[in-house]
Amino acid sequence: MAASLPLGAALARVDTLRTANPKLDQLDGFSGDPNFMLSLARGLTVLEAFSERKRPLTISQVAQRTRLSRASVRRCLYTLEQLGYVSQEGGQFALRPRVLHLGHAYFSSTSLVSLAQPVLDALSATIDATCALAILDDTDILYLVRSEVQRVLTHALGMGSRLPAYCTSSGRLLLAHLPPAALEQFFARAELRPRTTQTKISRAQLELAFASARELDYVLVDEELEPGLRAIAVPVRSLEGQVVAGISVSVRSADASEQEMVLRLLPAMRDAAADIGQMIAT
């Protein structure tokens, strides 16, 4: 059995799929703190405004996404350009490969990634389906490990990719195990909007789903993230019993019914979650 590892450093923030949605009150609240670098916070917020869809952005677009002033955005982008993190052409800005150093440093220093990858690869081979391991990061899930048999999502996902927690199987599972105060903060910050006609977006619906997740110890989400996509997730618990991550398997709805997913996939997923959990100490 592999040695246990601390998970505290594993909960980092990387934004790839969704645009940044910063809360200015959170930044302004630090304005009186002599140890808080407001300019650095603004620069990171500007970086997070770029998504993995590779569309260049103008200063106005970044300002709109970040809710920062155009003057602040202009200074941030100028600094990031001088440091090699963004490039500019015709008044439009795009990320440069140098930003990969930021994410690579995190993933290369997180033992959970290297320990979980072979477990997920074995799970994927056993069930012949795409599986992933994700953690909760604010209102999103952050993918740490993924083993893909075939692409089932519209967008390609890899390490560091993010999706909204409320309409994903892993996200809903992890939200279900948050303490009440943290769950209140989630509902205060989350942007709940329908992704499909099936998406649950009311607090009452989600709280019922959370209760079901705690009772069943798994979550099945049917066409709430994308039409034609069905996903199931199980919790990964540390040696102390704390839910720290989720393993999900995604399939096309036409390929497996909900009952088939529970009967065929759930036992192997739980075994994989237990194997990874034995490596984690909180």
Task: Provide an overview of this structure.
This protein is α+β, with helices and mostly antiparallel strands. The protein is built from eleven helices and ten strands. The strands form three sheets. It has a six-stranded antiparallel beta sheet, sandwiched between helices. A hairpin with a 2-residue loop joins strand 4 (about 130-135) and strand 5. Helix 3 (about 60-65) crosses helix 4 and helix 6 (about 110-125) runs antiparallel to helix 11 (about 265-275). The longest helix is centred in the middle third of the chain and has 17 residues, at about 110-125. It is globular and about 55 Å long. Pfam families: HTH_IclR, IclR_C.
Task: Write the topology of this structure.
Elements: E1 5-6, H1 24-28, H2 38-48, H3 59-66, H4 70-82, E2 86-89, E3 92-95, H5 100-109, H6 111-127, E4 130-137, E5 140-147, E6 162-164, H7 169-176, H8 180-189, H9 203-216, E7 219-222, E8 229-237, E9 243-252, H10 258-264, H11 266-277, E10 280-281
Parallel strand pairs: 1-10
Antiparallel strand pairs: 2-3, 4-5, 4-9, 5-6, 7-8, 8-9
Protein name: Pca regulon regulatory protein
Keywords: DNA-binding, Transcription, Transcription regulation
InterPro entries: GAF-like_dom_sf, HTH_MetabolicPath_Reg, Tscrpt_reg_IclR_C, Tscrpt_reg_IclR_N, WH-like_DNA-bd_sf, WH_DNA-bd_sf
